[in-house]
Amino acid sequence: MTAALKITDLKKQYDNKYIALKGIDLCVQEGDFFALLGPNGAGKTTTLKLLSGVINPDEGDATVMGHVPWERENEYRRRFALVMGQKNQLWWDLPAMESFRLNQHIYGIQKTTFDKTRDDLCEMLDVTRLLGRPVRELSLGERMKMELIAALLHQPDVLFLDEPTIGLDVVAQHKIQGFLKAYQKERNNTILLTSHYMKDIEALCNRVVI
Question: Which of 33, 63, 88, 128 is spaced 20 to 30 Å from 139 by Cα?
Fold first, then answer.
C-alpha cells in the first residue's frame, strides 16, 4: 500500500511557552480510516491544522499525498478537506445551497459534476428538503450534515475530521457515522478522525493511534 500521509517528529509551540505538540511520528496508508485519540490538550486539533496548512510547525516534517501542507499549494488544497465540529464554514444567514455554490466556484467544479455530487450527498444524508433554509434555522445535526457536504463537493482524496459529532444527539451521531462509513467505502479516500466518542471509533476506524 501507498502512504497517503507521513509525519516525522512534528512539533508546535506558542510564545516559546505553551507546547501544543511535543513531537509526533505517524504514517497513514491510502484508504485508511484512521483515528487520532488523546485527552484534551494532547495536540489532536493542532495536528490537523498543521496537516491542513492552517499553521506552520516549529520542527519536523510532514507530507500528505506528496505535498508539504504548509507550502499551501493550490494543487494540494484541491485534494483535501477539513471539517471541524466546533467551527462553521457555512454562511450563517444564507441557505446552505449558497455556500455550496461558493465552493463550486472556489474549486472550479463543473456544473454537471457539482449538481450530481451535491444531489448524491444530499440524498445520502437526507437533507435535500433543507437546501433552501437559512443555516441558522437548522438543528446542530442538520448543520453538521451540510458542513460535510460542503467539504466533500470537490471530492477530496483526504478528509480531516475534528470531532464531527461533538454535541450531537445519539440519532444524529448514528446517521453521520453511517454516512461516513458508506462514503469512505464507496470512494476509498483516506480519512483522519479525532473524536472523544468511542462509538465513532468503533463504528468507523480500521486503525487507531493514541
Answer: 33
For residue 110 the three cell numbers come to 463543473
Judge if pTM exceeds 0.85: yes
Q: Name residue 28's beta-bridge partners.
A: 5
The yes-or-no verdict on residue 108 having pLDDT over 70 is yes
CA 107 from chain centre, in angstroms, equals 16
Cell 495536540 sits on residue: 43
Share of the chain above pLDDT 90, in %: 79
At which residue does the C-alpha cell 517528529 appear?
9
Quick one: which of 79, 75, 20 has its CA closest to 50? 20
Segment 48-76 shows an average pLDDT of 95
Strand duo 33-36 + 59-64: pairing: unpaired
**Cα distance from N-terminal residue to C-terminal residue, the chain:** 22
- Hey, what's the cell of 71? 507550502
Asked if 132 and 95 touch (Cβ cutoff 8 Å), the reply is yes
